[in-house]
Amino acid sequence: MHRLDAILTLAGASLRSEFQYRANVVTSIVGGLIYQLTGFLVVFIIVDRFTELGGWTLPEITFLYGMRLTSHGIFYATISQMFEFDRVLINGEYDRFLVRPMSPLVQVLTRKLRVNCFGDLLGGLILLLAASRGVDVDWSLAAIGMLLAAVVGGALVEGAVQIALGSLSFRYLNTLQIRVVANEIFNVYGNYPFRIFPGLLQYLLTFALPVAFVAYLPASVILDETNGLHVSTTLAVAAPVIGVALFMLALLFWRRMSRHYQSAGN
To answer: pTM value?
Structure first.
């Protein structure tokens, strides 16, 4: 409980520091929202032109896009400081984290909040709410529970990838471009039903880089679009659990790689 209180205190301090500049906060949130909805507009034009895409209707793809974007917003609110990790190591800031009675990783992740994540979250929720009325889903407690678990699980998948790749910086210092490329792959390919991709790419986006587990597989279960999946339905149902497992593995990898850390002063 004390550890959770400390984490919330650090996160709250970061949030308060950002809200000292309210105009910047508003423009960041609005800018993030416009950016994400503009990306959806491209998908909307494509699907509206061809009626459906990969057998998915516009409401279903909107639902898929909303799920991925909401997961991405949660990830961005909690894990986005991994994009700054190279700088933290190079300028010696990480040394300060090692002498404090708290996990260095927690301190890295709570050092600053990117407020534009709220634009992602807001955009994702808007799309989910709009699409939920047009998809053929019986919104039982089980379906709602699956949706909530899937959104959190998707955030854990993205977080696991970024923490694992960020851990490589303990040995190679500059790995930012790898993480940026991975993030772009999630953002570009995660918005579409995988049936439109070649078979090899579907498997690569599932087992090499787990994009499918963020939204496509759980959305297929919720929307009852499991016919023609490139993996078993059981694996699709287990997507939120896969997110937890990947995140735990990423933490183990972080601990292992952190043993190779050398102070910036050495």
So the answer is: 0.88
Band the pLDDT of 2: cuts 50, 70, 90: very low
- Of 200, 198, 216, the closest CA to residue 208 belongs to 200
Look-up: residue for tokens 């190679």?
A: 172
CA 54, 57, 61, 64 dihedral sign is negative
Domain residues of the chain, as ranges? 2-258
Model pLDDT for residues 49-65, shown as the tens digit of each residue: 777 888 899 999 999 99
Residue identified by tokens 């309210």 is 22
Distance CA 13, CA 199 (A): 47
Q: What are the Cα distances from residue 130, in Å, to 61, 77, 123?
A: 11, 23, 11
Residue type at 134 in one-letter notation: G
Tracing tokens 């991994």 back to the chain, one arrives at 82
CA distances from 227 to 54, 133, 177, 230 (A): 12, 22, 37, 9
CA angle 159, 145, 206 (to 5 degrees): 40
